[in-house]
What we know:
The complex is a heterodimer of chains A (152) and B (183). Chain A has 152 residues and is of the alpha+beta class. Chain A has helices at 2-18, 36-41, 43-46, 112-126; strands at residues 22-25, 50-60, 67-71, 78-82, 98-109, 140-151. In chain A, strands 2-3-4-6-5 form a 5-stranded mixed barrel. In chain A, strand 2 and strand 3 (67-71) form a beta hairpin. Chain B has 183 residues and is α+β, with helices and mostly antiparallel strands. Chain B folds into 2 domains: 3-36 and 118-182, no CATH class; 43-115, no CATH class. The interface between A and B is medium-sized, with 18 and 27 residues.
Amino acid sequence: MKKFIYIFTFVFLCSTAMATTIHLGEKLTLTKVTKISEINAHPKKYLGKRVLIEGTVIEVCAARGCWVDIASDLPFQKILVKVIDGVIVFPMTAKGRTALVEGIVEVIHLNLRETVEYSQHQAEKRGKKFYPTSVKEPMKLYRIKGLGAVIK
Amino acid sequence: MNWKKINYILHRDIGLLCIGLTLLYAISGVVVNHISHDFNPSYKIEKITSQVSPAPKGAVPDMVMVKSVLTELEEYGKFKNVAFISPDNIRIFVEGNTIDYFLSSGTVVQEKVQKRPFLYELNYLHLNKPKKSWTYAADIYAILLGFLAISGLLMIRKKTIKRGVILTAIGFIIPIGYIIFLL
């Protein structure tokens, strides 16, 4: 019995230590990667379509791990990947690692108040001044509803 | 052996079997209840704002700049990656630390992330992050909890039936009341 416990512990620790690649959610089914810059440039073309994207994880939801920002292939661009709470939980340690994410492109229609709040939050993150009166129209936010991911 | 005796033995033994998991779910449950944007139950997140030398005007971010920032911060953790967030902001990823460097001002915002020992492991199981076989283990535990509730109910004796009924009713009234008034 003791021998069995030792073997089990050893195998468990080894598997934990070697688990460098993290698989989350559904298995990836697509093989062709769509550039994030391409989705950002033509979001309507991809709306409702299943895509596979690849990029560096630059931000992770600190509360629940329910969203990540993935850096685009072009500088200063990113795309938001939102997952259903609890179905996929992105670990904080994913930051800075390369992620392959498969999901469906969707659009969120923000109202004017939400647009102001979103813009204010973005400005604060960049350390810039924000004037709520500068927001005149509600905005659309294109993002990916994440179904599966591999963190390399 | 009558059914009351069997019920008592099963209630006692299954209760003992569930002690470990109950404590796991209870401790983790309290911390997970308090999740907010300021509190992550699994990670300790510390934000530090400091100042290093600003980049020369017109300088293009490169690895020399990254190394210089890391040296000034005395950050010697394993380098992971770097990303261009905006023309004035690069984000450097080091093991356990994310560093936002603002080129023009030299302002640095560090986000140091550490796993909360013990709680990380408890939450890992409570939130069913391993999925697979743990899903079955958690399901079996939930069924056993259900059994403990019913077998406990059957253990109410005639002498204490009034108290038993009142306490059981309170247990139902609290969640039902919340649903009625808050939902």
